[in-house]
Design goal:
609 residues, alpha+beta, five-stranded mixed sheet, 33 strands, 24% helix, binds zinc ion
Length: 609
């Protein structure tokens, strides 16, 4: 009997694994780069050795690299998109009309040859042999000499040259704060190949998806420039610039340049910035990494760049406690870019005349929601932008405002605006291909953040806290997908959430519940919006006492932990729902927490005359 049972189990397991025979895998990159920067022409030359491991179950006949800087050229796809979208990113255009009647001109269209960005591949070898390649805009397509088999490692050796564009977006030379070099998306970068196939997205606007791996980068640059970025500096005693051990002597080489050698383990990208005029401060997080702050020696900003330092440490502790431990030894906040943008082990942030704390809180939170939990930003930007917005607003509430750090509906306004204006698009839209930038932004940041704040309403606050921690533990240094956060929340809460992911993210259905009728001890509720939800109801009786009720949505197959009186569940198809109370009713309110994004709250309250 036992033997029979064992063979049945073996057979059963075999059938299951045959049905789902592709367990999680991810590709691996190991870059060694050596680049020589000319700070006068903004041109650089580099070599790149890339050891690429194909961990997929597939044989690869081609590979693709991103050549992001090619976007900053007249007539590129990025330029064309700027010229056709109704609400272009203001940083990337010049208004040649009036304030009331704006007419936008693409700044990319106006770039001269010595101002454009480019990345040119001069030679490429696969395992020592020249390989065929060609460039299409921002993507290099490589036809391999011999296919890369599952489990196989190959080495690509490349010689390339680049020109840093006039600063238009994210990276470039001489940004508006006068930072000389903001070096993001600056090197030929292998595109990601995952369970969905290749993600060789052209660089049009946003955003990124990188291959996990290790970087060894040497940058030769004018010795007056201070460099900050991803990675640990390997030769601080030859560099100085605030990186050195102050108890020992710095011995610099005699030439005009210094050679900065960085290594960065287990990251999806490598970014750096450099300026001859950076102040470099460090700040140690208690039981945590060393923070670096690099910012211009400009008396108008110094106060705010000092103020942010202990607060960054506080935020680092908050995220480590509420999501999971920060895994690297350092993090750098660097003045550069054009607003705030997250990178591996660092961020580029502009400004400082006004406080930069909010921006730094947001970008630092991205370390978790992008640089540790590396979802595909182009396809699911709400997963990183939304979750970053969610956790950084909890951190701001707790650290800056002395609040409890609880989710609130304060940030919902933008969402109600796009719903009202009928410009919303489902969050399954590729980030480049939203009709309007505002629909992308509100969708990703606001509606994405609301995914979690509303989840508090659906499965309870403690369950959401546990969900974030489990999501971190199960998917750190991987590429989680929307289904992974949904499944994590389901496993933590025991509540089924397929309907929630579908309705909230994959459709633009909206929520509207109403109190249809109240008579004596009877309440009738009505679902008007297409999206269903569980319902919290607070009833006040004529004797002045109140009672909370919870009506689970039948599709949830469960109930959140609650002190409320749990009523019979409500299915999706029935549009009305009736329940009775033990006492005469004075008033009824749907969702006192306001965390449910009901688009018409005017019908959520009822009072007897
Ligand atoms: Zn962000």
């Amino acid at each position: 009997m036992k033997k029979l049972l064992t063979s049945v189990i073996v057979l059963f397991t075999w059938v299951i694994s045959a049905q789902n025979n592709t367990p999680y895998w991810q590709q691996h990159v190991n870059y060694t780069m050596d680049v020589d920067m000319n700070v006068n022409t903004f041109q650089y030359k580099g070599t790149q050795k890339l050891v690429y491991t194909n961990n997929s179950p597939d044989t690869l006949h081609k590979v693709f690299y991103h050549l992001y800087f090619n976007a900053f050229q007249p007539n590129s796809e990025m330029d064309a998109r700027l010229q056709s979208i109704k609400d272009p990113d203001r940083r990337m255009v010049t208004n040649i009309g009036t304030k009331e009647n704006p007419k936008y001109e693409s700044r990319i269209a106006k770039l001269k040859p010595n101002e454009i960005g480019y990345l040119k591949v001069l030679s490429l070898k696969q395992n020592g042999k020249n390989v065929k390649y060609h460039t299409e805009g921002t993507v290099l397509e490589v036809t391999l000499n011999s296919p890369i088999k599952p489990g196989e490692k190959v080495t690509f050796n490349m010689v390339f040259e680049g020109q840093v564009p006039v600063h238009i977006r994210r990276a470039g030379r001489n940004n508006k704060d006068g930072v000389a070099l903001s070096m993001a998306q600056w090197y030929p970068k292998m595109a990601e190949y995952d369970f969905e196939g290749w993600h060789a997205h052209p660089y049009i606007a946003r955003e990124f998806h990188g291959v996990w791996g290790d970087f060894d980068v040497t940058i030769h640059i004018d010795k007056n420039y201070t460099v900050g970025g991803t990675g640990y500096l390997q030769n601080p005693q030859e560099i100085g610039h605030g990186y050195e051990d102050k108890s020992q002597k710095v011995i610099k080489s005699k030439g005009k340049k210094l050679s900065w050698h960085f290594i960065a383990p287990n990251v999806i990208d490598f970014t750096w910035a450099a300026d001859p005029d950076y102040i470099h401060d460090t700040y140690k997080v208690e039981n945590g990494p060393l923070l670096h702050f690099l910012y211009k020696n400009d008396k108008e900003i110094i106060k705010n760049w000092k103020e942010v330092q202990p607060l960054t440490a506080e935020a680092m502790k908050f995220y480590s406690k509420n999501i999971g431990a920060y895994p690297w030894k350092q993090y750098s906040v660097i003045q550069g870019g054009d607003g705030g943008m997250e990178y591996a082990m660092c961020t580029l942030v502009t400004g400082g005349k006004n406080s930069i704390v909010g921006t730094v809180f947001h970008e630092l939170a991205h370390t978790w929601f992008q640089h540790i939990l590396a979802n595909n930003e182009s396809k699911h930007s709400w997963l990183d932008e939304g979750f970053t917005t969610y956790i950084s607003s909890l951190a701001s509430d707790k650290i800056l405002k002395g609040g409890e750090g609880k989710p609130s509906a304060n940030g919902y306004r933008g969402y109600f605006y796009v719903v009202d204006a009928a410009i919303e698009e489902p969050l399954t839209t590729h980030a480049d291909r939203f009709n309007l930038n505002v629909a992308f932004s509100v969708g990703s940041y606001v509606k994405g953040s609301m995914f979690l704040s509303q989840l508090n309403y659906i499965i309870g606050e403690e369950n959401v806290k546990k969900t974030l921690k489990k999501y971190y533990n199960d998917f750190k240094f991987k590429h989680p997908t929307p289904n992974d956060i949904k499944r994590t929340a389901e496993k933590v809460s025991g509540i089924q959430l397929d309907w929630y992911l579908n309705e909230w993210i994959e459709t633009i259905h909206t929520i509207d519940y109403a109190i249809d009728n109240v008579e004596g001890k009877e309440v009738t509720l009505k679902r008007i919006g297409r999206m269903p939800m569980p319902i919290d109801v607070t009833v006040t009786y004529t004797d002045g006492t109140t009672e909370n009720f919870n009506i689970p949505l039948r599709m949830m197959r469960g109930v959140k932990p609650t002190n409320a009186t749990i009523l019979k569940d409500w299915d999706w198809a029935h549009l009305t729902y009736r329940f009775s109370t033990p006492k005469e009713i004075k008033s009824v309110v749907i969702d006192k927490s306001m965390l449910m994004a009901d688009i018409d709250r005017s019908n959520n309250e009822f009072k007897t005359e």
